[in-house]
Amino acid sequence: MTTAHPHFTGARPLTVLTHAALLTGRLLRSLRRMPTFLVIGLVQPVIWLLLFGQLFSSVVDLPGFTHAGGGFLQFLTPGVVMMTALFASAWAGTTYLQDIDRGVMDRMLTSPASRGAMVLATMTYQAIQTLIQSLVIVAIALAAGARFPGGAAGVGITLLAAVLLTLTFSALSNAVALLTRQQATLIAISQFTTLPLMFLSSAVMDLGLAPGWVGGVADYNPMEWAVVAARDAMGTHTDWTTVWGHLGLLAAAALVMGLLSTRAFRTYRKQA
Fold it and tell me: Membrane spanning segments where (predicted)?
């Protein structure tokens, strides 16, 4: 068994950030060489926007739909942005699994790079992908006729909410990868969590049309926190108390999951 490098503990913040920047650059170089995954990740969101956005456009006329202003495409866009962030970040642990299989992970753990920097790098990498994809989705929605009264500020809040959601679930995915070391297990857990989280939120449908218990569950759903913050910020009458409150919940969740992911390295080393 390899021994941990003494710099793991007590690493200075500047050192951690420097290491995280270098490790993020490594991941971004890989993305630049193979941008296919970034493009493929946009296929499903485009289908949701252009196909389902038109197919269910009359849903806004149903009694109980409380977000009728602006049409269904305006309602759907924040949900699609968060769906894309959620699905992509749930697979973030794949990067760790590849590093484990290639022996890269063990070499990195004996290097001066801290565990916190390694976690921060993967989370930053996922956040950058989310920013690119979210901007493309908003641009497509605008081209398709959606209008967002919240303007640039609303779009900025949407991007922030998407990034916080990404940080939360990419950290969770990394922790699962380190604890299980199995691609099949990561896939199963991702599928088991992402779809329920999506449908137990207002991402694609107004909760006013859903059973009451769905709304109760949605109150504790990070996906719903992100959707509500984005949709409210992009709407006509923004309740900033609601927006910042939900962003605060997302930030707290991201911090907790980041700490969990960092702690997961301890279990990984014990099993090595």
Answer: 36-56, 76-97, 118-144, 150-172, 184-205, 243-260
